[in-house]
Amino acid sequence: MTRELQARAYLAAPKAMGGSWTRRLRGGVLTGLAILAFGAMCADLKLAPEAMLAGADKLGRLAASAFPPNDGGDLPRILKALAETFAMAFAGTVIAAIAALPLGILGAKTVVGQPVLHFAFRRVLDWFRGVPALVWALILVSAFGLGPFGGVIALALADVPSLAKLFSEAIENSDPKPLDGVRSAGASPLMVLRYGLAPQVIPVMTSQVLFFLESNFRHAAVLGIVGAGGIGFELEERIRIFAFDQVVFIIGLYMLCVAALDTVSQQLRKRLA
Q1: What average pLDDT does the structure give for the chain?
Q2: Tens digits of residue pLDDT in 136-161
Q3: Which residues, at least 6 apart from 269, have a Cβ–Cβ distance to it below 8 Å?
Q4: Which three-class secondary structure state does DSSP give residue 192?
Q5: What is the number of other CB atoms lying within 10 angstroms of the CB of residue 243?
Q6: pTM
Q7: CA-based nearest residue to 151, from 129, 134, 163
Q8: 237 Cα distance to chain centroid
């Protein structure tokens, strides 16, 4: 870089090009500490090339046995499991959206203006958001036994806090002018919500629910591996008997379904935007 270019760069971004030596020293120390921390984590997790090479031979044999993929004569059963997985995702998302709607209204600052209550309510939602669907599924499968019931409830429980938070933010970000306009016409509070608030927030909420449906279709497969039924159960069964040609077939079919659902969901969300 020539001196002229350096001077122009300094004029354009003086903080990036210059700075005191203490700032540079602090940046160097922080970078060094970050590299040391990364190295310590790799050592603790045993992320070494030797570990990769030790399993590479076995991985290669498994990959060779996976081709050509085939359905093992169980195509109807696999398709039924895919339908069951979608049903789990759909039911879990709908239950979560219904349960999250009143919580989202209560969590909005514009509805409950008391700061302490609002803070406490949001922290409770944050606390429950920290529990992933897999943990809920393990608990519920232990309680209710194997099957999709535990998976549906696990998906719903994992989604309710997140959807409630998103719904409350959608309500808080709504434009107050339409609400004031309907209110000034002498409408009741219910009519204000119906004609002032709902047209603004329903497209946003619907878009968020569709996004969670996509996500839940992927999560439902993982829940099946821990006993919640669906395509995850079929995968787990075949991995256990080393039928990797059927595993690859199921994964390919599942990826096609995920791509189709993503495409439909994206188109619907674009129309709602």
Answers
A1: 82
A2: 888 888 888 777 888 888 888 888 88
A3: 207, 210, 211
A4: helix
A5: 17
A6: 0.74
A7: 134
A8: 26
